[in-house]
Amino acid sequence: MIDLARTWEQLEEIQPNVLRMIKNSILKDRIAHAYLFEGMRGTGKKETGLLLSKSLFCAEPKDGYIPCESCHYCRRINNGNHPDVQIVEPDGASIKKEQIKFLQEEFSKTGMESNRKVYIIVHADKMTVNAANSLLKFLEEPGSNTVAILLTEQVQRILPTVLSRCQIVTFKPLSFEKLVEKLIEYGADPKKAPLIARLTNNLDEGMALNDDEWFAQAQNLVVKLYETLNYAPLEAMTALQEFWFVHFKEKEQFDRGLELLLLLLRDLLYIQLGKKEQTVFLTEEKKMEQFALQSSGLRLAEQMACVIEAKRKLHANMNPQLLMEQLVLNLQEGSSFV
Hints:
Rossmann fold, Zinc Finger, Delta Prime, domain 3, alpha/beta, 5 strands
């Protein structure tokens, strides 16, 4: 798994509002006894939890709040072996009562290296009811120097009684531009990065797509299908049998293919509107320009509506192969689903 960022400066680029709040809390000595970091996967929640831990334990924090990253305490937290910073993660599919009980027992002991203690609960929404109730008792009677940091992607699954005892901190998704920048920084193909950033907001998933041969082939086949629809429409149904159904087999794969087709159509519309800088199919620039010259804005808009409706029907469990055959007919006509 890729570390989205680790230092204060790196995380401040991604979550400036969150880091500003943490800075003010530290400088004003108003650290809450419990935080709930909520937001999409890949937005830096865990990294920020560790950063806050380092800020609290650091021997020589810069300007009073930025961890030095080099002292004994910072290094131990970075290496995951600081005895007073405990991380709880799901044991299998859930976080169990026994895990919370063990945490409580550990925190009842005197601090190994200081009188402060921090615990981070990853995927807090996966706590069993018994585990959540055990945690609730812990939150109701926190130690004077104990800080809880709960992380979740699904805040609606957290018990209201737990929520009410936490300061909720929302992490915003990475911007499109920032994700493209990060993808390239971590080695993604600059020509693929914009397309990937339109499909996911998660850096780990983005890098996986960059290295995925199935995904690379999927892009080529989407372009090939559109080309067939325009230059050899009578062969479109045959094309579905020859290459589309061979490559796109699972429901998720069909959905990915439709997402790519929708982005392709949108790119063609951008080219017609003189907004080429907003296109994302950068590996097929010449073909895209040719396609854009041979269609109208109205037809592209109608075709995009067809694909959006196809995605809706796919999610409503329509047979994927029947759906694609119907979609191809509608794309040829430029009309929407009936």
